[in-house]
Prior knowledge:
The protein is an alpha/beta fold. It is built from 15 helices and 15 strands. Helix 2 packs parallel to helix 3 (about 110-120), helix 3 (about 110-120) crosses helix 5 and helix 6 packs parallel to helix 8 (about 220-235).
Amino acid sequence: MTEPWSAYQGIYVHIPFCVHKCAYCDFASYQIYNDTIMGDYTRRLVEEIQQWQPDLPLRPDATIYFGGGTPSVLPVELLARIVQALKDRGFWNHPAEATLEANPGTVDLAKLRAIRQLGFDRLSLGIQSFQPAELAAMGRIHSAEEAREAIALARQAGFQRISGDLIYGYPGQTVASVRDSLHQLIETGVDHVSVYGLTVEEGTLVHAQLAKGQATLPSEEETGAMYNLLMDELPKAGYGRYEISNFAKPGQESRHNQIYWHYDPYMAFGAAACRFNGKQRETEPRSLVAYLKEEAPDVEELSPQIRREELVFMSLRTARGLSLTEFRQRTGEDFFHIYKEGWEHCQKRGWIRQNGDRIALTPLGMQYGNLAFEEFL
């Protein structure tokens, strides 16, 4: 049997278009929303898929994930062309999961049914908040009612796996507003919840607003209370924490994202898309113009040390943690021989524990995840 780290386990497709660029967004996404540029992009993307020669075998049930940007802004006929190109190349076979990211306000029942008929069975909805003032401040194009409606329409269209995202720690948010948004999301019955603490990236609108004094972040105490609220309320509502920021009802975990956290190879297509074969990363140009001109991707050769470190901190993002046996199989090294000091530091702080063959962060360790990861770099 081929080990999962010896074959491509999933396929990511990047759709970089948005109706409106959100204030916090640092992703490769562009507020370009016209048929000409979307048609040109789709042609280039299909060509890339047709021409790419995989250097590893592809798992027959490899997962599919269309991310962005907002993939749901792409007309269905263009989505269909990309799906068909993947099928024609033998990349879309019998996916264990096929996810499409969408934003409320960009989908209706007819479009959701068409997306479902293309073969997508999981929908990931960028909701972020149910508070009108917060949605406006973030630059979101949808209302709370449209978010609820999108989830209901997705069910009606036949999606059995629906995920919703929330942000906390955003300017203007309070513990009470985060609690209300969380309860409203839970009431919709979504199967999966992702919760992200705001990271202020240079070049974003919110970064500029904070620098000019036009916005103020919640205090550390308030953000900590928001975090504790989410960590407490989601499990009570039946969502198990399986990764630092991700919670799911039983069996509803994102199969595609677990490929990243298990540090397994994955294909990727589109502007800014990053593919990984286990030994190197290859990243397509972020610029739409550069991508359409077919400029060469950036190739990063990963040393054994970098691969070892990335395997550790990606695995430790998950509740299952890292298998010591697998670490030895993949690196040829003994974990405790290499990371004895980092392990002891994390243990003393109550950040990490061992259970048989596995080591995993404790809830406290997940709260201070970045500090814990630094011990293994």
